[in-house]
Every structure is written in C-alpha cells, then in structure tokens.
Amino acid sequence: MIYKSLKAAVLCSVILFASCKDDTKTEDKIAMSDNVLLQEWTGAYQGVPAFDKMNVDDIKEAVLKGMELGLEDIEAIANNTEDPTFENTIVALEASADELNHVFTYYGILSSNMSSPEFRDIQTELAPQLSEYSSKISQNEKLFQRIKAVYDASQNTPLAADQQRVVDLIYKGFEMNGANLDAEKKKRYAEINKELSSLYTKFSNNVLHDEENYVTYLNKNQLGGLSEFFINSAAKIATDKGQDGKYAITNTRSSMDPFLTYSTERDLRKIVWTNYYARGDNGDDYDNNQIIAEILKLRKERVGLLGYDNYAEWRLQDRMAKNPQNAMNLMEAVWPAAIARVGEEVADMQAVADANGDNIKIEPWDYRYYAEKVRQKKYDLDSDEVKQYLQLDKLTDALFYTAGRLFNYKFTPVEEGKVPVFHEDVNVWEVTDKDSGKHIGLWYLDPFARQGKRSGAWATTYRSYTSYQGETNVLASNNSNFVKAAPGEAVLVSWDDAETFFHEFGHALHFFSSNVRYPTLNGGVRDYTEFQSQLLERWLSTDEVINQFLVHHKTGEPIPATLVEKIKKASTFNQGFGTTEYLASALMDMKLHLADPTNIDIDAFERETLKELNMPEELPMRHRTPHFGHVFSGEGYATAYYGYMWADVLTSDASEAFRDAPGGFYDEEVSAKLVKYLFAPRNSIDPAEAYRLFRGRDAKIEALMRDRGFPVTTE
Q1: Are residues 132 and 28 in the same domain?
Q2: Which of 156, 272, 602, 612 has the fewest CB neighbours in a 10 Å radius?
Q3: pTM for this structure?
Q4: Is residue 90 located within the same domain as residue 236?
Q5: Residue 93 near residue 11, CB atoms below 8 Å
Q6: How far is CA 376 from CA 371, 493, 571, in A?
Q7: Is residue 573 in a domain?
Q8: 141 lies in the same domain as 247
Q9: DSSP structural state of residue 615
Q10: Number of domains the chain is built from
Q11: Where are the alpha helices (H) located in 214-264, listed in sequence order?
C-alpha cells in the first residue's frame, strides 16, 4: 500500500505542491520561524529531515505557519499581473508551499509511525483547519482562471508532452474539486470537506485505539501449537507491557495471523479473532459505524454539487476503470470462482476436523488453523517449517539483489548517525547506480510493530525525484509491523509477510526510478500504482532469490529443494480464502458508495450485502467496514479498493511476459522495458498506453485466472 502524504490527503486529487526546494524563496521568508519543522533540510544527500529534532510540541505551530506561507505563495500566483503562462502559473504552483511540504513529512511520521495521545489531540484540532486551507486553494477563483487560461491555450497550441499532462492533471483536479461551482455551492463544498476531515481523523484514531487496547494475555498452559519463536516474542511483548510471566497476543495482523494458524486453543482463537475483526465495532465511544454513515452521506452530497449521481462515478472517471460498472464487471467475473474454491477448501478442512474427531463445524476462527492442516496433508507443507528460512535480514538482502538485477541499483548502509532517524529501529541505506556510482537517494526501513504505529505495511516518500529546478534525489521509506524477536534471535516472517515486504519495496523502486520533470507527475492512478508493487512480489519465488537468501536461521543451510518444490506446488493453495476475503471488501466498498446513504445502517448493510453475495460464512472480509481504513480514514482508496484486483490482472499478464522470455524473470530486455515503460514514467503518460508499450497489447484477465488456479473459460 502506498501511504499518501498529508499533502495529498488534504488536497484530494488536486496536486498542488512540489516536494523539493523552491529556489525562488527569499532567505528572509525561510528564516521567519525558528521552528525546526519549517526549516530547509540540511546535511548530506541534498539535505535530510531532522527527525532527531522532531517534537510533538512544535507540530501545531509549524502547520499553522506553513499554511500561512503556502497561502502567500498562492496569492502571489493568483494576483500576478502578467498574462498566464505555463511558467508563471503552472510551474509556480508546482513550486509553492515548500515550508509546508517539510512540515507534512514530520506530520506523517507522527501520525503513522510515532502517534501519541498528545499528537492525536493536535491532529483532531488541525484536521478542519487543513481542510479549510485546501479549500482556499481549490476554490481560489483568480488562481483557477489563470490555470484555465493556460489549459485553454494548450488545447489550441499543445505544450511538450509532459507539460501538457501536468496542465491536464491540474486543471482536471481543480474541476473535480469544485472550481467551476457557483459561490454558494463552493461554500457548501468547503464545509463538507471540513466535516469529512474531522471524521477521517476520528475514524483512524478509533481503530488505533482498539488495536492498542485489546490485548489477549496467555499463561504457560495456553501455548499449544505455537512455535518457540512466537512464544519468545509474545513473552517479550507481555513483559514490555508490564505483564511479566505472561504472553501477549496483540490486536494486529502480524500477531493475530500466526496465532490463529497454529494455536490449538480454539476458545482463545475465537477471542483473538473477535478482537481483531471487531475493531471499530464495539458499541462504545470508539465505534465507527455512525461515523461511516456520516462520511457516506457527506461524500454523496459533495459530488452531487458537481452533478454526479454517486461518489463512485465521480471518483473513477480518471482511473483506469473509468466507471463503477467496469470495476464491478471485473470483480463479478472473479467472484463465483473464488467462493466456489472456498467451498472446496472448507470441505477439505471439515474432512480433516472430522478425521481428527474434533466434533466441530468450521468457523471463521478455525479457517487458518485447519487450512494449515490441509496444506500439510495435501502438500506435506508446514508453513512454520518454511518460516525457519525466512529471516528479515536475509529478505532485505534479497530485495537489494532484485533491485540490482532489474534496476542496476546498489544499496549501501549509511553510517550510523550520519542521517537522523525518528526511532532506533529505523535503518538507512544509500541507493546508487551500480555502474556509474550516481547517487539515486536514501532508503529508510522501519520494520517493527510498536505502540503508536498504525498497523499494516506501507511505503512513502519524504522527497520525490524532479528535474524542473535541477535534479533532486529521492528519500523513500518502507514501513512494516513485523513482530520483534526475542534478544539474540532472528526475526522470522511468514511467506505472506515476505511477499508483502517485496510488494512495498516495489513502491520504493517506483519512487527511486522516477524520471519526471514536475512534481504532479510523481502522482499516480490508484488502480495502476499497485501494479508495479504487486509485480515485484513475483521475484520472491524466483530460483535466484530462493537459492541465495532462504537459509535456515540456526544452521545457515539453504532451504531444501524438496521444500521449495512443495512451496511451488502449493502456490494456488488457499486462493479461495485470499481472493474471497479481499474481493468481499472491494465489493463492499463499491456497493456502499453506490447505495443511498439516507438513514443507512452500516451494520445491517454489511450483513445484507454479504448475504446477497453468498459470502461463505466460514470467513470474514479482509477489512470489515468499521475498520476499513483504506476507505474511511481518507479518500485515497474510497471506491478504489478494487484497484488491487485491477492491478493484479496487469501483474499476472506482465509476469507471463517474464515467464516466456529467454532470461526468465531476470531477462535483460524485458527488464529494461519494465523500467522504461512501467516504472520511470510514473504518471507522465496514460497508464493504459504505458502498459501497451511494455506488452504490445492490453492485459488479459485469463492470466489472473490461471495464476489463481481458477477455471479459464475464454481465451
């Protein structure tokens, strides 16, 4: 998942700010505040964030001052007496709000990696003010008229291709966000955005509260089935939480998932499962159901001001899918095969349970446990055995190897203390070109779960590449929630977590390989930007990675060829579960936004929709509605969660290009096309055209069906 910066979240689809230094600013303006969060970055590598000097107490002043300075920039552009041109309007807009961009970097860290009650109070206070700031830009009539003048002129006399795309994207962004509305509608539009910003913040903080406060503690008699590694880690977490002698199962996926897979304590599995899937849905002060209902009403009202029937219609117009029906067509084409496979998987699990004399009916908290039993029976494959060969450090080396083969990048650890970090767990590497030695950027890795860190895994940038004011290097980060090992032990992860590690690194490579002039072109089309990262997952299972980096954490012995063969044979195992839990969430996202939100009962809507879909009762949605942060903590994935499936069609099709190439997944010719057409352009060309340049045709859904072991009915 790409973590969108606060900048992008605040401005929705209006891309207004540069992420690099604006050399036109005067030293006097930069020196207006002693607040470190507003100041230019200093030190090596074209300057880096002063994370070591970051303080929650400084954030409110910095945001307020940054907005003030940003609006000064906007007013200067809007009131320019010269005729509007690309340079004095569009480029000036790209270079605006430099100080606020710096603040947003720190704000993002304090929000996602280092949250605290003190920061959440500030965040709640600032959310509506940030929304107002956004509205003052997107509804600035003088500014929009200058943008429109440049846009209109370019329709008669086109600019250079990348400049034309910048103009088109910015104009469309303003238009989609109400720039053409009359004064009364603009006022209401801004009011709605302000209300939404507060609701998004409250939604996120409610989920984080439930993740932090629902912990299941075990005693030594309740550890059946759990690995030594997991037990030691759970003991350390419990000790850190003041429960010495106990074992903590935290309310995060990285803790919940292995517990449900291996624990023999069925009653405890039910408790842990319930805690996790009830986040935001506990009928208390942190319940999100009413918040979701309000969000849906406000979203529909807002797009109604623009003349759209529903939020999905408005949102998807500039995505690859173009409209809700195309997205629904894809999901509905896959859904029947997915739930049919679940039926087969449940039957296999029930047979194992019956044979064991367990006298149960498979319930959602049993699915992972008995799926693992079936995996062992069908493929003689033990996930915990595989895990012994998946060390985080070695997987990190595998990432670097892959980047070296495909992108010609070299990763070198940065000397401790040379680059400030916000937590002792964070490490930094310098990225260079292997042949020329050219500096590309820095890669920050924050791998471990901790109090105040949001769940999941994500990638983000602190500075993106542009060349319109001189080349800038990239500062990119990957963030995970692996469970820290007990002292002296290796950090072991599951195969799924290893794939996610590769996935998020794919986003980082997308950032590093950028070759665009203007900041706006570093943006992306949501149902396309997940494609590059999903594609990178495929390199985890290549022979080159397996043979070099999957070694036993104690003996150092390479993973046995027989075990590798079992992994590959089981590659389509449990695809019913994986596909169905994801698709259920994606379908729910779309159906919620296509429904009439008047008097909507979120809990009832979820139940009834799942019933209409014939959702198997033995598993839940991957993200139940009350904690569906992709969709309700902001707007990045709203009516766009289907995008993972859309991107997976591209991924499956593109992977077959590598599969069929003479050099396989490391074929130099196909790799060069991958970088040239799919990574480096970012959003400088239309995604569909970029894919055709790579593949020579559009992607085909049949590749996805083959990948998942589902029946292929057409060719």
Answers
A1: yes
A2: 156
A3: 0.87
A4: no
A5: no
A6: 9, 18, 13
A7: no
A8: no
A9: -
A10: 2
A11: 228-240, 253-262
CA dist 94 and 209 (Å) reads 37
Closest CA to 404 of 384, 428, 434, 440: 434
Q: Are 409 and 680 in contact (CB under 8 A)?
A: no
If asked whether residues 263 and 144 sit together in one domain, one would say no
Strands 474-482 and 458-463, how do they pair? antiparallel
DSSP letter (8 states) at residue 411: E
Under 8 Å CB-to-CB from 92, ≥6 apart: which residues?
73, 76, 77, 80
Lowest mean pLDDT among 23-37, 186-200, 608-622, 676-690: 23-37
- Label each residue of 625-652 as H, E or C: HHHCHHHHCCCCCCCCCCHHHHHHHHHH
CATH number at residue 26: 1.10.1370.40
Element (H, E) at 129: helix 117-138
What pLDDT shows up at residue 705?
A: 94
Q: d(Cα 459, Cα 504) in Å, to the nearest integer? A: 6
Same-domain status, 238 and 111:
no
Structure tokens at 457: 């895994």
What span, in angstroms and rounded, lies between the C-alpha atoms of 708 and 571?
8
49 close to 106: Cβ distance less than 8 angstroms: yes
* Residue 42 backbone phi and psi in degrees, to 5: -120, 175
Tokens of 649: 């069609």
Contacts of residue 162, Cβ cutoff 8 Å, sequence gap at least 6: 516, 517, 518, 521, 684
Residue 143 and residue 77 share a domain: yes
Are 224 and 164 in the same domain? no
Give residue 234's domain range. 214-277
Q: What is the pLDDT of residues 530-559, one digit of tens each?
A: 999 999 999 999 999 999 999 999 999 999
**56-77 pLDDT, tens per residue?**
999 999 999 999 999 999 999 9
d(CA 566, CA 555): 21
Cβ neighbour number for residue 661 with a 10 Å cutoff: 16
